[in-house]
From TrEMBL:
The lineage of its organism: Bacteria, Pseudomonadati, Pseudomonadota, Alphaproteobacteria, Hyphomicrobiales. Residues 1-20 form the signal peptide. This is DUF3299 domain-containing protein. Keywords: Signal. It comes from Roseibium aggregatum.
Length: 247
């Protein structure tokens, strides 16, 4: 009898552990191994980066066959000035320019790759919901979760590993664009791409994660109110907030 009770208790604890949700942050979604690479451009100041870009652009212009003869001396003079400024700052111009393609590939991979340690895990994460699809025949709807309000419309879209596509029961869908929510469910590494219409026009949504939502909690009462928040509500459901109320 005692052995049976111990077995049942162990089974209960195992089931509870299986469905326990791990709180995760957006930084947790980034693959630490892929993101850890030597980026020589990080050491440059904004002015140095701008000057380096100018050098590359001017060199490319001088290599073009259709460049006007009268324009060449002016471009060469500007190029010499920019190269001299970089040299005076100790910037290794030639080496940095030779690294640009390699670094670009590493940056792209770091932006796309999600943390494999979270694949298949039950998680809880907060963010701003972007409802997308109308309910399907299976009674589910979908959308995207992003870390900051306004992303993908008035702000650039986040990196793919900072965007989650979610599937949820239609009756539990977020009620307006950029509603602050806490989502729980099973997170998987699954790259998806979809073009949607969002406020400003068409947006390419590239996400590295998929979340099968089992729970949602609105955080509107826990999020500081601001005019932008009221505008998002208006765009999603015009009866909620009048345009003048968001002034």
């Amino acid at each position: 009898m005692t052995r049976a009770i111990v077995f049942l208790l162990a089974l209960v604890f195992m089931q509870a552990a299986a469905f326990a949700q791990t709180p995760v942050t957006w930084e947790d979604l980034i693959d630490p191994e892929t993101a850890n690479f030597d980026d020589p451009y990080k050491a440059l100041s904004g002015l140095e980066l701008r000057s380096l870009g100018t050098v590359l652009r001017l060199r490319q212009r001088l290599s073009e066959e259709d460049i006007a003869a009268e324009a060449r001396p002016r471009i060469e003079s500007r190029l010499a000035q920019e190269e001299a400024k970089l040299a005076a700052s100790g910037v290794q111009t030639e080496w940095l320019l030779s690294q640009r393609h390699s670094v670009a590939k590493k940056r792209a991979k770091a932006a796309l790759t999600g943390n494999p340690a979270l694949d298949g895990q039950e998680v809880a994460i907060t963010g701003y919901a972007i409802p997308v699809d109308e309910p399907g025949e299976d009674g589910t709807a979908s959308g995207y979760l992003v870390p900051e309000q306004g992303m993908c419309s008035h702000m650039p879209a986040p990196n793919p590993n900072q965007m989650i596509r979610y599937t949820i029961e239609a009756g539990n869908q977020a009620s307006y664009v950029y509603e602050p929510v806490l989502l729980t469910g099973r997170l998987t590494l699954k790259t998806t791409r979809q073009e949607i219409v969002l406020l400003d026009g068409y947006v390419d949504m590239l996400a590295a994660f998929d979340l099968q939502v089992t729970g949602i909690r609105g955080l509107e009462d826990e999020t500081p109110d601001n005019p932008a928040s009221r505008l998002w509500k208006y765009f999603k459901r015009g009866e909620t907030v009048k345009p003048e109320a968001a002034q």
